[in-house]
Design a protein that fits this description.
single chain, 133 residues, alpha+beta, 4-stranded antiparallel β-sheet, 30% strand, elongated
Length: 133
């Protein structure tokens, strides 16, 4: 009887140990991270808002960014950690801003003194920023 109780206790301890190992070893190999792409700050002096809080200059800039294949929304990147996902988002951002031209933005007819910042960010972490002018 003592021998069967000892075997039963040993088997239970083994099962508990295996359960703990499985729970701690089953971490996801990758995680999805969300990034915001778009104009984060701007000023278009003297412009009236077309929609509440959207000046006409911002609509022109957003249309230009879209025409240059710049993302203007939230995108998800899968990575083993935030640094891995940040590298992916930064590569997309860098490719997008390589298409931008100050001369083309000047040709949009924005009011004198206009400026904006196009950004990619993850939460409060800025991954990339393009500033005009």
């Amino acid at each position: 009887m003592k021998k069967s109780v000892a075997i039963l206790v040993s088997v239970c301890l083994l099962l508990v140990a295996l359960g703990i190992m499985l729970l701690t070893a089953c971490k996801p190999s990758s995680v999805d991270y969300v990034y915001s792409f778009g104009v984060a700050e701007w000023e278009f002096p003297g412009e009236e808002a077309v929609f509440p809080e959207l000046p006409a200059g911002l609509l022109k800039v957003n249309a230009y960014l879209k025409s240059q294949a710049c993302p203007i929304d939230a995108l998800y990147y899968e990575g083993n950690d935030d640094e891995d996902a940040d590298r992916q988002a930064k590569a997309v951002f860098n490719q997008a801003v390589s298409n931008l031209s100050k001369a083309e933005i000047d040709a949009l007819g924005l009011p004198a003194g206009s400026w904006f910042k196009y950004r990619a960010s993850r939460g409060g972490v800025i991954i990339g920023e393009y500033a005009y002018p």
